[in-house]
Amino acid sequence: MTDSRLAVVVLAAGQGTRMKSQTPKVLHGLAGIPLIGHVLATARALDPAHLVTVVRHERDRVAATVLECDGACTIVDQDEVPGTGRAAEAALDALPNDFEGDVLVVSGDVPLLDADTLTRLIAEHRTQGASATVLSAVLDDATGYGRVVRDAAGALDRIVEQKDATEAERALTEVNSGTYVFSVPALRESLALVSTDNAQQEKYLTDVIGLMRSAGRPVAALPVREGWLVAGVNDRVQLSDAALRLNAMIVRGWQLAGVTISDPASVWIDRTVTLDEDVEVLPGTQLKGATSIARGAVVGPDTTLTDCEVGRDARVSRTDGTLAVIGERASVGPFAYLRPGTVIGDDGKVGTFVETKNSTLGRGAKVPHLSYVGDTTVGEGTNIGAGTITANYDGVNKHRTEVGAHARTGSHNVFVAPVRIGDGAYTGAGTVVRKDVPAGALAVNVAPQRNVDRWVAVNRPGTAAADAAAAARESVDDPDTA
Ligand code: UD1
Ligand code: MG
Prior knowledge:
The protein is α/β, with parallel strands linked by helices and 482 residues long. It is built from 10 helices and 37 strands. A hairpin with a 2-residue loop joins strand 2 (29-30) and strand 3 (33-34). The longest helix has 21 residues, at 236-256. Bound molecules: uridine-diphosphate-N-acetylglucosamine and magnesium ion (MG). Uridine-diphosphate-N-acetylglucosamine binds next to helix 3 and strand 10.
């Protein structure tokens, strides 16, 4: 049920300088979705009456991604005054004037925080009747974070940013997670008093804590149960740390849901993937995007699937696939490359060193070895010979190849598209198929073989080949030594 007294504000206007990237920080990917996508999903799970994201740096790109992740989120622009305090001010301006509930402020760069922790934070804030409740964390390495400063009695006094902290303050290990619940009227009043008189010349949201405390308002800091929950992503080291942590949780979640994963450390599964019970994921496998794998399928080792659908009991080994559909009991790899638009029928096969693109293989159709199959339809039960290439591109346009059902094409063929090979047709080894082959016909167009007798003896005298040929001839000429 919607919490009518709750607004959530996601801060995402900062530049993210420490990422050293053309991509805004909050758009960097983590387990298949942007950092901010994780934050928005968690925020939405709280069912707030208002959800607002503050943007400024690369405004259009960030806003577009926010709306892709959560179409109902309100986008608010921060002006040229920098700092998290200014961002919060802009967000408050976007809330209805008569909204006097609580606002949960979260950072777009803190992706691992879960809804349970936030629900507890909000509940604690409300129970205590606080003006501000800060989610803090005690970390072994507090570098970069704002420090929580408590008074002699242990009560929250203020937050000091690392860049403004004294040596003694830097030694404190309790940090500000950048996540807070505020009573909206108290936050409005306090933000109006925040200056930019600090090391970064920014309007810090963290300054409201000291101001509220001085004004006699109740403030508190609540340490999170595990520090990694509030890990901020400011650079690429922190990004990979967060990815590792999140992946471990995702893999464990699937194991508990009935998926066999013998080597969790080498398997990467995006948050957007779905797996059935009794799927097995072998080492070195990455499952990305909207990939789904049905019961009994075995995927890996060393396989990367992006936006693929794998049918029941299929087997996919050492394969790279994108936007491919793999039928039930189908077999793929080892060493297959499935490009977008590949559809492999039930009981079908795409074997070793085979590349496919924009092609549909019917039920039981097989491309077992060393082939390129592009822009092609293959009928059910057909076997494509080893080393077959569809010549689908004439340098300007792409053309289709159609092979009927139960055809048997020879090894080392070229199908020069557009071309059709009929149902039940055969082609000889080495055929270059330039004309349609009628159903049931055999197509052959390789020139008859001519043997030039003694060519090696005449043209390559004295070589090992010539000696071997001479020895072979002697044994044929002289049956005694044969
Ligand atoms: C902030 C906190 C710090 C805390 C840390 C936790 C302040 C002043 N400091 O520092 O106490 O320990 O988070 O991760 O708040 N943003 C805006 N507008 C701005 C600047 C930033 O919306 O003008 C957004 C950023 O996009 C980001 C979030 O606010 O999502 C935090 O900004 P960031 O620059 O990462 O602050 P930290 O230095 O990490
Ligand atoms: Mg940060």
